[in-house]
Design goal:
Layout: E1 3-9, E2 17-23, E3 31-40, H1 43-49, E4 61-68, E5 81-85, E6 94-98, E7 102-104, H2 111-115, H3 117-129, E8 138-142, H4 147-158, E9 162-167, H5 173-179, E10 183-186, E11 199-204, H6 208-214, E12 218-226, H7 239-245, E13 249-252, H8 255-258, H9 264-276, E14 284-289, H10 293-301, E15 308-312
Parallel strand pairs: 8-9, 8-11, 9-10, 11-12, 12-13, 14-15
Antiparallel strand pairs: 1-2, 3-4, 3-6, 3-15, 4-5, 5-7
Helix pairs in contact: 3-4, 3-9
Length: 315
């Protein structure tokens, strides 16, 4: 069987990630073969790589060109520029992708821009959708300088919300205000965000003490959407205040669960149309060759940059 290069977990190399030869994919009837041009990194897959078994192939986000269309006739044709999503194994030269997880990339959108959208963009998209009508309503985004947070600010503003961003480092204030945040709360403590609330929707990724405070900042019938716990999984909150507010809720969002109800292709098409129109701007902080995967992955874990990292697949 033919071989391709892919990123695998190798416990014997610094950073545990390396390029290696693997068996070329054999697509199912509803999968297209994509010749990958660019990939994007997310904390979830990188974090799992630090403990995964040898040989595991990480990777969620990819963008490239259809080399072989799906046998069942679904999805984009040969030669189409696409962006897609896999549960694992996207960081490879050639990848099989279900056609319901692929969307065609407009000519004006680069592979690098498209590659930022699958996990970070779709997570933000589904989180914002949980708020329903946001016109004129206050929305709080924690972890706002991260990949998801940056997209969430923009999407909430496009929906007409009054957006408050919470960041831990003052150096990222300009970044989130350019994304559309009208007010910014800086520091470890979320409590100052109370000044701009109560909130109809809180998009939360920190957990720990931050989530405990966030649950007390909701307006009646408000919702906190939790998609990460970078600050800790254990949470203490005022339960009496929470239920006493009336109708408030906490929603745990996992992207791959959301995709059971709406395919990635649908959301990606919507996000791409916004990028094409100049209404949604991916923020790429690092753009290098995939040969630097281990170094870039470590920088991501160390929070050395706020936005997205995109790696180009080189020969």
């Amino acid at each position: 069987m033919s071989k391709i290069r892919a990123v695998i977990v190798d416990p014997n190399v610094p950073g545990r990630l390396a390029l290696s030869e693997v068996t070329a994919p054999q697509p199912a009837s509803d999968e297209a073969l994509v010749r990958v041009a660019a990939i994007s990194l997310n904390r979830g897959e990188v974090k799992r790589s630090t403990t995964a078994e040898a040989g595991w192939q990480p990777g969620w986000d990819l963008a490239g060109v259809i080399e072989t269309p799906a046998i069942d006739g679904s999805g984009p044709p040969q030669g189409a520029r696409v962006v897609g999503l896999r549960r694992s194994g996207a960081w490879a030269e050639l990848v099989s992708v279900p056609t319901n997880a692929l969307a065609e990339v407009p000519p004006s959108v680069s592979f690098a821009e498209a590659a930022t959208l699958p996990v970070a963009g779709l997570t933000a998209y589904h989180a914002v959708l949980k708020g329903g009508s946001l016109l004129g309503r206050p929305v709080l985004v924690t972890g706002a300088s991260g990949g998801v947070g940056y997209f969430a600010i923009q999407l909430a503003r496009l929906s007409g919300a009054q957006v408050v961003a919470h960041i831990r480092q003052a150096g990222y204030e300009t970044l989130v205000t350019k994304a559309g945040a009208q007010s910014v709360v800086i520091g470890e403590d979320l409590s100052p965000a109370r000044e701009y609330g109560p909130y109809h929707l809180i998009i939360e990724s920190v957990g720990g003490k931050t989530l405990g405070i966030a649950l007390g900042l909701l307006a009646q019938d408000g919702k906190t959407v939790l998609y990460g716990v970078s600050g800790g999984a254990e949470v203490t909150f005022n339960a009496a205040q929470f239920f006493g507010t009336g109708g408030v809720s906490l929603y745990g969002l996992r992207l791959f669960d959301e995709l059971r109800f709406e395919s990635a292709a649908v959301g990606l098409k919507r996000l791409l149309s916004l990028v094409e129109a100049g209404q949604l701007r991916p923020h790429i902080d690092l753009e290098v060759s995939w040969t630097e995967i281990a170094d870039v992955a470590q920088k991501l874990l160390d929070r050395s940059f706020p936005g997205k990292a995109v790696l180009h697949i080189s020969n």
